[in-house]
Amino acid sequence: TGIVPVAGTEIPGTFELGQNYPNPFNPTTKINFSLPEYSNIIIKIFDISGREIKTLLSENMSAGTYTVDWNSTDNSGGKASSGVYFYRVYASGENGKYVETKKMILLK
Predict the structure, then answer these.
(1) Which residue from 63, 60, 61 is spatially nearest to 12, judged by alpha carbons?
(2) How many other CB atoms are there within 10 angstroms of residue 95's CB atom?
(3) Which residues pair with 105 in a beta bridge?
């Protein structure tokens, strides 16, 4: 799982979570997110029943736009099965908190 800053972008004005792409995907997908300020950010993947599958990211990050990859593995390194998953971002900075959830589909 890698985190890559998106080059050539300005500091965003709001927290944003993009739709993953490709969607549906197999076996890797990308998730874009934007932070308007230095923030603590957590991105987690959940299965359809709400169980946490993977913590993609949990750290403090500078303002900017980023891309993180998910290679369809769980927290123990096992492969996730085909199905519907949700990814949720929790971000908290000096000016407030942000939580958003989006749906994605893993097809094998």
Answers:
(1) 63
(2) 10
(3) 84
